[in-house]
Amino acid sequence: MIKYLITLLLLLPNIANATCVKPTAMQGAVADTVTTLVGIEFFGLTETNPVGFIGSTAVKIISLTYAADSSPEKQKVFDSTAGAFWSAAAVNNLMAILGATSPVSIVTGIVSGMIFYNMPQCEKKDD
Fold first, then answer.
1. 35 phi and psi, to 5 degrees?
2. If we measure between CA atoms, which residue out of 85, 83, 86, 84 comes closest to residue 35?
3. Of 106, 92, 79, 107, nearest to 23 (Cα)?
4. pLDDT value at residue 6
5. Rounded to two decimals, what is the model's pTM?
6. What is the number of other CB atoms lying within 10 angstroms of the CB of residue 93?
7. Across 70-90, average pLDDT
8. Burial class (CB in 10 A: 0-12, 13-18, 19+), 86
9. What is the Cα–Cα distance from 47 to 122, expressed in whole angstroms?
10. How far apart are CA 50 and CA 79, in angstroms?
């Protein structure tokens, strides 16, 4: 299982460049929230965030709202950073849902977050 996971993580940047899958902050926030809710409700996982599920969801909404009112440069930085962070949390949640041990899910989340953060920005096509 681990060798397949490592292979996927090594190929992810190349796949992402070809398909343009760099997560935005909104996508990461939704992915983290949904996977957390699924893990808690259907798989008996425990929320480990000190502010809890409601608190972390509120922080995401406030952060996204604040970033929407900032300059385009700050929005781009926020989108890249928060998108990688929250997507990494979603990957961690998915690994826990799939039954991975805590160290494996945490390391997988960290590595995927670094990959997401270092992906090039998707280019908008002019139609």
1. -65, -35
2. 86
3. 79
4. 63
5. 0.81
6. 24
7. 94
8. buried
9. 32
10. 24
pLDDT given for residue 5 in this prediction: 60
Q: What is the mean pLDDT of residues 60-80?
A: 94
Question: CA-to-CA distance for 116 and 91, rounded, in angstroms?
Answer: 11
Please state, in angstroms and rounded to a whole number, the distance separating the CA atoms of residues 90 and 88: 5
Residues ≥6 apart with Cβ < 8 Å to 26: 64, 83
The residue whose two tokens read 């989340």 is 109
Structural tokens at position 86:
């929250």
How does residue 39 score in pLDDT terms, banded at 50, 70 and 90? very high
Please give the full DSSP string across 44-113, using - where no structure is assigned. ------TTHHHHHHHHHHHHHHHHHTS-HHHHHHHHHHHHHHHHHHHHHHHHHHTT--HHHHHHHHHHHH
Residues in the chain: 127
